[in-house]
Amino acid sequence: MPSPYTIYVMQSAHTDIGYTHAQEQIGLMYLEHYDRVLDLCRHTANAPEPQRFKWTCETSWQARQYLAARPEREEDFLRYARAGQIELTASYLHFTDLIDADAYRRSLRWVVDYCRRHDLPLRCALHGDINGWPCAVADILADLDIPYFCSQIHVDSATDPLGRRGSVHYQWTREMGRMLRPDAPIRVPQAFWWYGPAGGRVLHWLNEHYLLGNVLGVSSPQPFGADKTRYFTETDHLSADDLYDRARQEVPRYVERLRAEGYPYDALLLSTGGFYVDNAPPDGRWLDVIARWNAEHEDIVLRTATLGEWFDALVSHDTGAWPRYHVAWPDHWAHGLGAATARVAQARRTQRRRADALALVAAANEPAATAALEMALEQERLALEHTFDAWCTTARPAAAINAFQQAAKELTFHRAELYLDEAIGTALRVMIPLGVAPAPLLRIHGTEMDEARVVHFDMGDLRLDPRSQVLVAADGALYPFQYDAAELSLVVAVLPTRAAALSSFGVVAQPMATPPDMCAAHRGSHMATPAAASVELRTEGWRLRVDPATGGLTSLREGSTGREWVDARHAQAFGQLVHEGVVHPLGRQAVGNVARFIALDVASDELRAGFAQGPVVVHTSPAVEGEPHVICGPIFDVIEMVAAEPRIRRLQIAWRLYHALPLVELVLNWDKVWSDRPEAAYVAFPFATEERGRLAPSACPRCDWSSRSWAA
Ligand SMILES: [Zn+2]
Questions:
Q1: Nearest CA to 87 among 378, 382, 302, 311?
Q2: Could you report the per-residue pLDDT of 555-584, keeping only the tens digit for each?
Q3: What's the confidence (pLDDT) of residue 2?
Q4: Who is most buried in 166, 184, 391, 668, counting CB within 10 A?
């Protein structure tokens, strides 16, 4: 007799810091959630295992939050964790893929330390909803001896990354049936070995949606689309028998559909929330559903499970045939990032400064600096978390909660930067003796790999003037500096960091040569030749040529190799801003799931008929107005231009070429027009390649391929 089909039902709460409720309410809600988790564990500790309450901490943030606030309940928590009723997973929060590998690794520290300290297993990482993460995650998990990774990505505005073209969530065929062709394929969960760039591997289970168990009636299916007051789940009056009636219909139907689509196993992981909503409280009705189910069914059996128990079952199905994928896994719909470009720039500033801040604070060994740094790192994690706005942003644009959540989210970016400043300032004050002459201005940390570094700093209360002053190092060597953004009192210098030690710099008066002389001295040759329709800058490292019509580069030639990096045949100029605005009458829907269903050929005839023909988006790029302006400076020479276009309004473009480093910078300052419709903006970088369209990472040793630098 064949063994019954076993459904491992996992209950967890999808962590959104925001979305359903204001951010600080989310923190309070999880305290109540975990009080209830412990109560449910206690009440069912001796129940038959299939109907014993089990809870998977979807993020370790949930547990950390709870244990910090309720130390008196830690013994209970540990008891049920050791008994296998609660499982901690590694993932701290669900991030956008703006997070870099270093920050991701740091985010795991708390749970790794906690599990080691309390001798708890830590075998799984779990990401739901988000659909991308740094490709280094496989390496990081392998390094930490965490063998299993489960993703329950949301295919909103896209499709299953490894499934049949156009495949959608199973529940969409139930809930959005009128929009889809009857034969639209569904996601088929699958296992594969996922390899990171350093060769680390994890067993990846690409599961279905994290609330599928609610849709199937194993947990409550009552939707909460319309109202989410603080105690909203109290309006769910469905009984376990109501749920069972639904499950009896839906579970066999789903199992049958999966079989028909080729799902090969006789076991299944079914993820549920206690309620059909994100940030759902735990709930006990599934235990009654499971008990009754198993009493009345033999072909399919249900059991509660943690994520690790599912993986234990899964590895028993390993026949050596699972595919191996060495792939990056970039996010495809971090909507919030697209609406927060200034905050994205701020997050990148914070990321760039993190290593220096960590080194400074470690060297200072000052508790106040350490505390400020910890605060900065936690605020950075909250900024990089995937939740940007309230559930009703589009349903009720005028609702106050939208503005609240947006403001609270933006503050996390500001706080991350503020506390990083605080940590650095506190560390510097400890380390630099005051009252010596010349007064030290800044200290920087370097590595032997990195002999000169661009250092951006704020003049603060000092009255610095790059035309009459220079920085002086401890050995008396002088280093000029230059305005980075004069209106913000920001300056930039290129400073030696040859020794793996800290260096300090003061400031002394040193009238600089007049700019025209410096230009000649530093640059070799410079010519503005309107007749030839190009402006050129040149150093030993690079020669760049700007097209005064587009503001982009027509040539970027590397000094050491003679290599040309620009594909001048491309439709967009190198470094050109491209604005993409929706013009279709359906607006937002024309670029969301409606458009995706049509593009992937799974749309119903009805949906297709309602989608007006005509352009969906228009692309525009601004045209440069007036002549390019060349400014020569001690740190970099720059070609500045102003461009305009009605949709874009005004854009300042600056190409900087540094003297002491082989560094080219493009600075775009854009005062953007408000748009009520979806829009996107890109900077085009059409690289010249031997094989058109492909750029081998090895061809660009200075490029940071671990992040999405080119998408910024
Ligand atoms: Zn989410």
A1: 311
A2: 999 999 999 999 999 999 999 999 999 999
A3: 61
A4: 391
Same domain, yes or no: 161 and 295: yes
Last residue of a domain, one of 475, 509, 543: 509
E strand or H helix that includes residue 249: helix 240-260
Amino acid identity of 20?
T
Which residues lie below 8 Å from residue 693, measured CB to CB, with a gap of 6+?
Answer: none
Average pLDDT, the chain: 87
Residues 104 and 231 in one domain: yes
Task: Please tell me the distance from the alpha carbon of residue 509 to that of residue 18, in angstroms, as a whole number.
Answer: 52
Closest CA to 491 of 431, 449, 544, 441: 441
pLDDT digits (tens, 9 = 90+) for 285-296: 999 999 999 999
Alpha carbon of 14 to ligand 1 centroid (Å): 6
Tokens found for residue 265 = 């196993």
Do residues 316 and 340 both lie within one domain? no
Total tally of structural domains belonging to the chain: 4
401 alpha carbon – ligand 1 mean position (Å): 17
User: Which residues are CB-neighbours of 229 under 8 A, at least 6 positions away?
Assistant: none
**Any domain includes 34:** yes
Centre of ligand 1 from the C-alpha of residue 477, in Å: 53
Distance 393 CA to ligand 1 centre (A): 14
- Residues 321 and 344 both lie in one domain: no
Distance from Cα 323 to the centre of ligand 1, integer Å: 28
79 CA distance to ligand 1 middle (Å): 29
Compute, in angstroms, the gap from residue 78 CA to the centroid of ligand 1. 27
Q: How far is the CA of 627 from the centre of ligand 1 (A)?
A: 48
Distance CA 186, CA 184 (A): 7
461: CA distance to ligand 1 center in Å?
43
User: What residues make up the domain containing 500?
Assistant: 442-509
CATH number at residue 59: 3.20.110.10
From ligand 1's centre to the CA of 366, what distance in Å?
37
Distance 499 CA to ligand 1 centre (A): 45
pLDDT band at 703 (very low <50, low <70, confident <90, very high): very low
- Higher local confidence (pLDDT), 648 or 179: 179
Share of the chain above pLDDT 70, in %: 88
Q: State the distance from the centre of ligand 1 to the C-alpha of 160, rounded, in angstroms.
A: 17
The more confident residue out of 356 and 519 is: 356
Say if strands 469-473 and 478-479 run parallel, antiparallel, or are unpaired: antiparallel
What are the pLDDT digits (tens) for 384-413? Answer: 999 988 888 878 888 899 999 999 999 999
Residue that terminates a domain, selected from 287, 303, 325: 325
